[in-house]
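Hey, I'm writing a tutorial for new members on how sequence and structure tokens pair up, and I'd like a real worked example in the thread rather than a made-up one. If someone can provide the structure for the chain below, I'll link this post from the tutorial.
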Amino acid sequence: MQLPPDHRTLSPHTGYTRAHWEAAADSLLAAVEPYATEDRALYHFPGDHESWSGRLSDGLEGYARTLLLAAFRRDETALERYADGLAAGVSGIWPRIEDRSQPLVEAASIALALRLTRPLLWDRLDDPVRQRAAHWLADALTAEAWPCNWELFPVTVGGFLQEIGHETEESRKAIDRGLERIEDWYVGGGWYTDGDGRKYDYYNGWAMHLYPVLHAWLARDERLLELYGGRLSRHLEDYARLFGGDGAPMHQGRSLTYRFATTAPLWLGALTGRTPLSPGETRRLASGALRYFLERGAVDANGLLTLGWHGPDKTVLQGYSGPASPYWASKGFLGLLLPAEHEVWTAVEEPAPAERTDAVTAIAAPNWLLQSTSSDGLVRLHNHGSEDVRYDPYYTRLAYSTATVPSRWYDNSVIVGHDPSRTDIEPLGVGEGWAASRHSAGGGARVTSLVLAQGAVEVRAHLVAGAEAGTPVRITGWACRDGVRAEIRPVAGLDNELCGVTGTGDTLFVALARLTAERDPAPLDELVTVRVDGEGGIHVRWSDGREAEARLADGEGVSVRA
């Protein structure tokens, strides 16, 4: 991909400007064009990973997600090609939108793109094509959605159809129904769970916030924009801390192959004026993520986005991932809707939160503790509240970071009786420098877990209850990866291999852990002292003199005094 030279005066951290985003968008759009069918209704990208929806649906996905990119770019030449594809697609080529079917997802991208570019695309179509397109989209208003972020796809379609005066009553009902549904999942502090349960990940930003905020903004509905924009602004206070100093987003959750779609809520805040971030910080975070992926093989030799994280990587895929799935990364180009003279493009870049200072930040809604260090730009997420067993290991590990990936060797786990499972996660609270939870483990055991953090250092404690005496227990730390150093050391109940056994009652296991990219970090013994008493008490003294005391008890939770 050919990009302009770095502009280190305007963008001292990333070198990227609006011209780089435009060039990246143009390159991606040019690369997909050879894979369009002759009528341009479908885009079939190469690869052997067909989604469970089948080739026809995958081809529609290729059309819809790259159309979204053309819409953000406002590329009139490209939009003319997509107009031809739309005319062909709604003439019987595209699959119908049915209950819980993938075309419902793609209909939302198409409707959003048509709404954003109405004078350039929709208004130039012949009336019979518009009628057929509206009728095809209208099935999204009544199709049953999966009970998660999918509830917002009829909202997005309904907003467009309402704007053009088609099926206005059904559109209103679909909008009201979807927006009412997500109220069940708003948990406060700017966070939603993606459906019932405790499913917290990037879908908060690129779905749960994106669609209602854009709908309110496009509809010029100030009441809705105040509601959803306020939630977005609060969410961005936490969200900005999920990016490493190298631009890497947190490697947690599902659909990671969407890559720099993670930047969409950053741009959305700037677009709608609902953000706590300065313009220079917004662009630094977004451009950092784009550069991170472009420099690490996200685009192949043909200029196509691959199925993976850096390069191709099937371990981050789900059954719904098809060859065109990565093109939901198009959401990351939302910032191109902002004019070139907008301050988000003209302000000098400012450091990201992970670059400014060391921080340990409690996030109450998902019961997460974020731990970042400015010396190496690493961000670590201690997960004491997010769970979706369908997508393990990207939800159920005890910790994630911007520099490591979950391994098949069960990193960041408590393995009880050779069983690494962690289910029924129960949050026990977060506070200044700590987070705690309880979960079900192997053999019917219960594990109460606590992490205390400062700088790059972690004190990890696990109280195992309900296991037979003599049950083996193993504690694991961070997965190894080039460029970072992972350490874990026993403190109590563990041997040098981080293995131990349960006693006749509740048994406490304590370890020190650290993940760092510093070249010559100070020894752990110089940074923290830990003492464990015989009643589940832990006494911690950090090198700066600060102290913390904690006590774990099965059935009673965790008490922490810092």
